Amino acid sequence: MPLLINRLLSRPKGHGTRAFFLKSTIQRRAKKVVKPKRASFRSEAALNNSPGPCELPLIAQQRGQLHAHTDAHAHAQGGNVVLSDRPENAAMDPAKSAAEDRNAEQAASMFRSHDPENQRRPTANKKINNHWKVIIAFLLLCFLVIVLAVAFSLKKGSKDKGKVWLQDRFEDIQQPQCPPGFTKPPLILVSLDGFRAEYLKDHSSHIPVINALRKYGTSTPHMRPVYPTKTFPNHYSIVTGLYPESHGIVDNKMYDVKRNAFFSLKTNEKFNAEWYQGEPVWVTAMRQNLKTATFFWPGSDVNITGTFPTFYHMYDQKVNFEKRVTTMFEWLELPEGQRPDFLTLYMDEPDSSGHRHGPGSKQVVEALENVDRILGMFMDGLKERNLHNCVNLIVVSDHGMEEATCDKAVFVSSYVNDTEGFTVIQGPAARIRPSRLPEEYSTFDYEGLVKRLSCRTHDQAMRPYLKEHLPKRFHFAHHERIERGHLYMKEGWQAAMRKTEMKYCSGGFHGSDNVFKNMQAIFIGYGPGFKHKTVVPPFENIEVYNLMCDLLGIRPAPNNGTHGSLNHLLKTTFYQPVHPAPLSHDTPCDASNPTPSDDRQCSCTNQTEDMQKDMNLQLLSIDSATKAQLRKQHHPFGAPHVVQPDIPFCLLHHRDFLSGYSQDRLLPLWVSYTIPRLPKVDPAVVHCVRADVRISPSQSQMCSRYGNDTELTFGLLHPPNLYINGPQTDSLLTSNMVPMFPAFTAVWELFHSTLLPKYSQQLNGVNVISGPIFDEDFDGNVDKPKPIVDSRAPTPTHFFLILTSCGNSSLSPGSCSGPLRVQSFILPHRPDHSENCGSGLTEHGAEEWMKLHTARVRDVELLSGLSFYHSRISVDETLQLKTYLQTS
């Protein structure tokens, strides 16, 4: 085009008759293209009426090349400029552009013809020709500018989604500002599949809209997914508040032995409602007379509990994101009474790009830019409809993404030769499934295979488990769809039967331990219901269901979340939680005689009868004032409440600890003590216990049990070498005694002798609560007590530890007035160290093992039948503390 203009401007003078050729050429073009108007160039007056630059869009529109929208129309379309009938990102038709260029070239060749008669034209005609030359050059230049402007705007427009909304003032509004016809704010849940929390930091410059939502709304550094960190289990957990073992969607692929059926995302079996347990939020809302709409969400196209969402679409990955957003607006524009109150929007990026190219690829960056653009388009559309300060928006992801390589893969066939009897469900949360189904699903020798696969190489990346021995924080055992054999993988590792069965040897994968950094998801809350410019500590995605119910003003169905634990995200709380009431109360355990009526076959060769009598007198001499002071010291946040019914127990006071003794289990429900900074502790003393005179012999254990059992000994919940105020012999009582396997006792003593003093130094003192757990059916809830035979206390399945200190490490637990810091553990009680290949007897090995079995206080409560932190802090703060998982 510039070459054509230069040729026109540089033609020789004296070619006066070229005006004729110019006139006839333009007339022919006008007849062919612009039929409603005929351009006339017969006089200078006609020339002066030729279209100027401002009229070119009209002519182009008539030619079918460009739809030039008014500002109002462009505003209504989210600022888009749509080229012809193509999508906004479509390119110009190369063939059409080439044809136009050829026509221009033909006109230019006519302008350069050499006719001798032209040289005899008068000078006036030469002036007219010069005039025409300038006009044509100007028109061509204008046309070029407009074409370039349109092309530039199309290219730039795809990146400027959200620009209108980003120019907002982002004020902290206290009440929803909704347009007429909206009596309450809609709630919109958006999922960006596979959006790793680390992307927020690594690619911040590429996601301006997401950054603004985080900055001016409520967010968390990361949201913890459920295990396994797969798409279907996590999406369904978000909308039900249930763990996979509770809602039944335990993986993207699974087997149901009761129905002898296989679930897969690629088969129609996924539409069978029998797979889906629990109640999704759209069902909860519809039960309470609300309308719902889902533009894709796992489970939303299934007839769960006999109903679908009011509006929904069958999943189709080919539907572009723009179409999904425009459909959301169509739903929001429905009249009140028909309009949905709750809506979901699902996008499969950046997950798809992460799988194909890996989380560190440029394609993932492009996918992040695209979903940010779509969110910008969505926020612009909300602003255009005056809904940006009305709707409550939640943006989440289901999991993160890890770099895949077969260099970090374990192949089971390299450990065992006979693999015909079982298959391996490959991945980072691999499972062992018998080949003969359903016959051997329950009878297969899972335990034998787990032993054969354990501790085969140094620092083995694959750790085989029976599902009941997995860390309790997974909540991944109590469902028949979870195979009993499980392969836990270290961070970045996967397992398969053999290399040919690996799904991801390149690109990216997910499914690993839900505390791994690269598995973490995102949560952003934005709108009038959420606090302004607020960042909260991480939490689990099972808590989102209750939060959504609160924003919708509806009652949630029963779920695994802790209702009220996310109240600190909201400007106005809908639900006011209270502490659970105790269902059992302590009864006195007193005695007047310092000599036991029955020594329970306990004897200490280094203690005389008079020595024991004197020690018992000291126990019995603790008066009520001293007891009150001891409770203040050792229960700084209140005594644990027993929330199981019909559990008889008594509160025992000692100078260095308190304990709640269970009279039907014959052991402590808990012990609690506060220690200052301890520079060192004495080595553990020889275990030699005496009968506690405060406990009736019929409610006390027999010491002789442990002398006759080579596979079981006893441990002491309060370690005698942690004596500070009283004699260590206060800990050497039958009321402090619990059955323990010798291997576990060694680790228990190592923790109290080595790790606990170290933590007391780091934390400026710490309050410790520990006790037994009974969960033989591995459902995550405390078992009911069983009848006691021969004074034999039941053997715990686990032991718990709760370490509480002040968030301000300059203050001790007793003087702390601010936030608290908590670290809790649920330690499996097993007869050997096979889980960590014998490394449990080293300080490092014990610490790493305990980190693997970290847990929330809420998990401890469910498994112990106790409730903690009933004093000194508010209920809302308590729930935040109980649901927090310390992972560092």
Structure description:
By secondary structure, the protein is α+β, with helices and mostly antiparallel strands. The protein has four domains: 2-158, no CATH class; 187-242 and 278-401 and 518-569, Alkaline Phosphatase, subunit A (3-Layer(aba) Sandwich), CATH 3.40.720.10; 406-505, Gyrase A, domain 2, CATH 3.30.1360; 609-882, 3-Layer(aba) Sandwich (Extracellular Endonuclease, Chain A). Helices cover 30% and strands 15% of the residues. It has 25 helices and 31 strands. Helix 1 packs antiparallel against helix 7, helix 14 (321-332) packs parallel to helix 16 (362-384) and helix 15 runs antiparallel to helix 16 (362-384). It is globular. The two termini are 64 Å apart. Residues 1-121 have low confidence and may be disordered. The chain crosses the membrane at residues 134-154. It holds the Pfam family Phosphodiest.
Helices and strands in order, then pairings?
Elements: H1 2-9, H2 18-33, H3 44-48, H4 56-62, H5 71-76, H6 94-111, H7 123-157, H8 163-166, E1 187-192, H9 199-202, H10 208-216, E2 218-219, E3 223-224, H11 231-240, H12 244-247, E4 254-256, E5 261-263, H13 281-287, E6 292-295, E7 311-312, H14 321-332, E8 342-347, H15 351-357, H16 362-384, E9 392-396, E10 402-403, E11 409-411, E12 422-425, E13 429-434, H17 446-453, E14 462-466, E15 485-489, E16 494-496, E17 508-509, E18 523-526, E19 534-535, E20 539-540, H18 544-552, H19 609-620, H20 624-634, E21 641-642, E22 649-653, E23 658-662, E24 667-675, H21 704-707, E25 713-716, E26 737-740, H22 742-763, E27 766-773, E28 798-806, E29 820-828, H23 843-852, E30 854-855, H24 857-864, E31 866-867, H25 875-882
Parallel strand pairs: 1-8, 1-9, 2-19, 3-20, 6-7, 6-8, 11-16
Antiparallel strand pairs: 2-18, 4-5, 9-18, 10-17, 12-13, 13-15, 14-15, 21-31, 22-23, 23-24, 24-27, 25-26, 27-28, 28-29, 29-30
Helix pairs in contact: 1-7, 14-16, 15-16
GO cellular component, one term: cell surface
Keywords: Glycoprotein, Hydrolase, Membrane, Transmembrane, Transmembrane helix
Protein name: Ectonucleotide pyrophosphatase/phosphodiesterase 1
